[in-house]
Amino acid sequence: MIKAKINNMPVEVKEGTTILEAAKQAQIKIPTLCKHPDLPAGAGCGLCIVRIKGTPKMLRACSTPLEEGMDISTHDPEIVAVRRTVLELIISNHPSDCLQCGRNNNCELQTLVADFGIRDESFQKFLPDLPKDDSTRTIVLDPQKCIRCGRCVEVCQNMQNVWALSFLERGFNTRISPAGDIKLADSPCIRCGQCSNHCPTGAIVEYDETGRVWDLLRDQNKYCVVQIAPAVRVAIGEAFGYPIGTNLTKKLYALLRRLGFKAVFDTNFGADVTIMEEGSEFIQRFVHGTGTLPLITSCCPGWVDFMEKFHPDMIDHFSSCKSPHEIVGVLSKTYYAEKKNIDPKNIVVVSIMPCTAKKNEIIRCEEMYASGCQDVDVALTTRELARMIKQAGIDFANLPDENPDHLLGDYTGAGVIFGATGGVMEAALRTAYFLLEGKNMRKVELNQIRGLEGVKVSEILIKGKKIRVAVAHGLDHVEYVLEKVREAEKNNTEMPFHFIEVMACLGGCVGGGGQPYGVTDELRIKRAAGIYQDDQKCQLRCSHENPFVKQLYKEFLGKPLGEKSEHLLHTHYQGRPVYAK
Amino acid sequence: MDAQIVFIKDTNGKIDLTKDFCAAFLNLLRENALEDKVQAVRIADMGIYDQGLVMKFPRENIIYANVQEKDFKEIIDKTIKSGQIIEELLFKPEPKQLRIVLRNCGEIDPESIDEYIAVDGYLALAKAVNEYKPEQVIEELKKSGLRGRGGAGFPTWLKWKLTRETPEAQKYVICNADEGDPGAYMDRGVLEGDPHSVVEGLILSGYTIGASKGYFYVRAEYPLAVERVEKALKQAYDYGFLGKNIFGSSFNFDIDIRLGAGAFVCGEETALIASIEGRRGTPRPRPPYPSVKGLWNKPTAINNVETLANIPPIILKGGAWYATIGTEKSKGTKVFALTGKVKNSGLVEVPMGITLREIVFDIGGGMLSEKPIKAIQTGGPSGGVIPKEYLDTPVDYENLQKLGSIMGSGGMIVMDEDDCMVDIAKFYLGFCVDESCGKCVPCRLGGYQMLSILNKITESQGKVEDIDKLKRIALAMQKASLCALGQTAANPVVSTLKYFEEEYRDHIINKKCRSHKCKHLLNYNVIQDKCKRCRVCVVHCPVNAINGDKDKGYFVDPKICVRCGKCFEVCKFNAIAKE
Amino acid sequence: MAKLTKNDLEKIKAKRQDDGRDWIKVGMSTCGIAAGADKVYETFVEEVKKMKLDILVKKCGCQGMCYSEPLVEVRVKGMPEVIYGKVDKEGVMKILDKHVCAKTLVKDAIYELRTKR
Q1: Nearest CB to B47: which of C9, C30, C113?
Q2: Which phi-psi region, left, alpha or beta, contains residue A243 (left: φ > 0; alpha: ψ -120 to 50)?
Q3: What is the DSSP letter of B470?
Q4: A564, B180, B181, B284: which has the fewest C-beta neighbours closer than 10 Å?
């Protein structure tokens, strides 16, 4: 343990702890801007400077380990003056139009400038003449607001291993852009949105489609229906001051009706249907040997895009089942439309997702139009919904609890856990167990595949057979799993895994690219906890027990993997070029 | 020798009396019937300055200074006829330069390894590998007091010791040949003139630290240096000084060359490491230092070319010998690229402790023109100016730092009154702004803001508040930049403000540049008494700024004038004033 | 290739010891080449061949007096070793005709470098 002093207060920390971390022990908050808890210290901004008392040199607290006997001063007049100058320099290179910015009131730079009490701009303003890039229609890059903290590059290159963003040029002209200075849509970008999640300013935001949804809601000829993803319900509260992870499902149902949606569904229902289809798929491959093992989940569109671009050799492993919200979408315009006698052409399906990639998923191939129209019309992020709630003038906190439209809205515990990493696997295993053993697991919680470990590996015994599963989240962790599979294929040895779940975003959808800004491990854990609590409270814990799912198959689909299911609920994949054109 | 030879040179340089004296001396020789026996040769440069007429007898190695014409007879009678020395005229100048790093430059063929061996090349390597343990090499270096010559002045023995002591099997050594300071070419001189000395130094560093692999990181703008180092490496491999079992020991060592790609920042050690690793050349925070986690996260020792060239002589002659040269805290010699308004510009190597005055006047031959010295700039874009009041400062790391400059890698630029201090600061800052990697805010944005302010000052848009603003941004850059480029980029501004703040105020308040350097502050006017009204300037002015007539005279309109200086150039009567 | 030992070094050293031959050394670093030293070197090689002179023409690095490049050092038996500066084609001929052949030094062209090594 290292013993030292910070601002005359003694601290004791493990060796290797940075001064920034150690200062928290003494209740000292050293200001930072480019540092993010998820990422290694880039050490770019220069705000976290401190000094060893009595020496002229200043060190960066974010990256300097505390050493035995150090006597650190974090705030003296010269340090504060230098920090202030650094902030003023940043402002001189940043637009002052906070009022029009997507991060107004929720921006790390804005907060710092306000905290420092900087009321005037003493340096000449130099703004680069760089255009916005909204080519992906999911993520918008605004280089004028970029402060070159480098978080997005670190995330895209090292955390997600996509390498769509990089630094270009140098010195004053440094900017962040896809390599080759091409449009984001032409780059390897998988639209996971992790860049926007980590960006401290309004330089990277989601493509706002709230205006479009308002228009559709006001259109008398349209029958608007909506669904919410599992991860949305435990994160929306953060925009309204709720403790992190508060489950606001029932209030959301009430809210969405007040907004004007004619029917409120739940993506968790779609998740239950996914399990029926994918669980059966697994049984086919595992028991009957039709199709290749391992089976790899396909509900994450960022992961699908990543696979199609970088690992097309894995296509045959993918479950052909669509993602849950697409399932609810297509069923809305067929099953639901039939039942309620509504012309599907007038139905508008809006999905509220924790995800930016969904905006691209809904048009990715012709199977997304299986109902005859576009199955899901608009995918909104949690952030966009929060804005709509505030614009609608609804007192969200005091809404009464309501129920969803049961037909496509009731769900089991297995459906809601889709929002956390390991949840899809857990849900699938609960049903696979039933399909093979004929009865439910005694304990349905599979704790060994929950949690934030990058790759989680486990073995389940079902009917005497060992089923090896792997769960990976954060695309940097996927390499390891895929390499093991390829190695076994090359050497013709036994498969290391039978079933693999991959989520592109660290933590699973709770940490998704469309969730409220500023994701950290603490947020991921607390949001996931909210999801697992919801699962525990559910009366029914397994997808196959969902009475409305049973009704769906009885009255409409027939059986899992049947002809109608194949037509409506399944899709195909193709290799795509990493760089378009 | 067949004929006796005497060199003749008037060393005051003010009036070239050499020809006259030589002619007079030759006459006297003829009178004594010695014109066939004695060659009196006018030479271009004696290396002696301000000693009047100097005569040197190379065979006897006798030098007479301040010789008058009346002494000629005595010289011919005593010295030429009978070999006697005339004590009153005798002059024994101490050679001011001591060439250790440049010991072989200009002596041997840099492309011949045999010639290098003939001057004790690779003997130091043989001695170290066969007779010394690595700890002993470090001991010798500690005794020598050698400090890094790249600019930081870190004790070399300590760097090697720390790298050696990091517990890790794979280690690396790197020779930093990415010499980027504008106007500095010391490393280039060594790499082109004596590449084997640096190769030997690098191998020695590898042996001492326990590294099996070394790299030369040479800037791509030095193609001849790259060529000569490549040749030297191949020759060293052929002779077994590289590869396996060097000198029959268990020491294996390989060297590769990596080229830079035009980034000054890649001379900074962590940016250099990033460049070799194939990543973007930007620095990273330290700790951990490269001696613990360097190239590919392995312990790495990076040394400058000049530092490495010092290693073989220290091994051969011992650290104690090296410590006899220099001052208490700065041992040994330093190579400087002496340039600017000095007569003899070039590479000079001097023992630490020599004064600036000696360098400029005794070695450099004094000022290029009649104008007196104003200041000396040392340390390149990280350094500062030293005004003429401090010319008698002994040169070493500490003294230069106390004056607000640094030793740096060895750039030394002599300036006179035609050099505008604001313009100099602008030049160096502009260089750093161009070369900034852009990673950290203080350097990327601070430098740009300071440069924009300096541009305004030199374009007559300066305000008095600008001076404090410059100081404020300079402080932020010094304290909060990630690497030494940003931390020192403001030094030229701070240093010129310290000693020449009046010049800044002149530019801002009076809108005047007394060195006539800042174009926008120049005013061209017709001196009416001298003007012959020939209209040559009128015709040559590209913007028709000169108007008038033969009766009333001609005048330059300052609002139209673009300060191109053409009228000043073409006027045959010196009737245009530039002020 | 051959691994040299310390003895081998001594042997090479002995072999390369001064054989007393006359030589001309041209400074061939970037400072010299920029001033035209490569042409000077070529001219020396050509002319020495043409004039059938028994004198070696060698290259060396920067002698330090960069302001007076191209620099040429000349050692001829019976004459002091001198360095000529600012040598051009004309200078080459003067050095060969006067210094090497006629054993008279060329005027106004010698530069002394005061150093210890």
Answers
A1: C113
A2: beta
A3: H
A4: A564
For β-strands A455-462 and A465-473, DSSP reports them as: antiparallel
Q: Which domains does chain B have, with CATH numbers?
A: 4-89 (3.40.30.10), 113-322 (3.40.50.11540), 333-416 (3.10.20.600), 421-510 (1.20.1440.230), 523-578 (3.30.70.20)
Cα–Cα distance between A212 and A234 in angstroms, integer? 25
Residue B194 touches partner C, C-beta closer than 8 Å: yes
Q: Hey, what CATH topology would domain C20-113 get?
A: Glutaredoxin (3.40.30)
- Taken as a whole, chain C contains a residue count of 117
Please tell me the distance from the alpha carbon of residue A515 to that of residue A356, in angstroms, as a whole number.
9
CB C101 within 8 A of CB C109: no
Nearest-by-CA chain C residue for B120 = C13
DSSP string, A216-251: HHH-TT-EEEEEE-HHHHTTGGGGGTPPTT---HHH
- Please count the other Cβ atoms lying within 10 Å of the Cβ belonging to residue A260: 15
Q: How far apart are CA A413 and CA A416, in angstroms?
A: 5
ipTM over 0.90: yes
Calculate the CA dihedral of residues A502, A504, A509, A511 and round it to 10 degrees: 130
Going from the first residue of chain A to its last (581 residues), give the mean pLDDT of each consecutive group of 10, the final group possibly shorter.
93 94 93 95 94 94 95 96 97 94 93 94 93 96 96 96 95 94 96 96 96 96 97 95 95 96 97 96 92 94 96 95 96 96 96 96 94 95 95 92 95 96 96 93 93 95 93 96 95 94 96 93 96 96 96 94 94 94 72
The count of residues in chain B is 579
pTM: 0.91
Torsion of Cα atoms, A499 then A505 then A507 then A513, to 10°: -140
Domain spans of chain C, in order of start: 20-113
Query: Does A have 3 or more CB contacts under 8 Å with B?
Result: yes
Do A573 and A297 form a contact (C-beta atoms < 8 A)? no
Contact B285 A41 (CB under 8 A): yes
Asked if B110's CB is within 8 angstroms of C66's CB, the reply is no
Helix or strand (DSSP H, E) at B10: strand B4-10
Q: Which residues of A are the active-site residues?
A: 278, 281, 299, 319, 358, 361, 367, 509
Would you call B5 an interface residue with chain C, using a CB distance cutoff of 8 Å?
Answer: yes
**pLDDT, tens digit (0-9, with 9 covering 90-100), for B229-245:** 999 999 999 999 999 99
Q: What is the pLDDT of residues B94-145, one digit of tens each?
A: 889 999 999 999 999 999 999 999 999 999 999 999 999 999 999 999 999 9
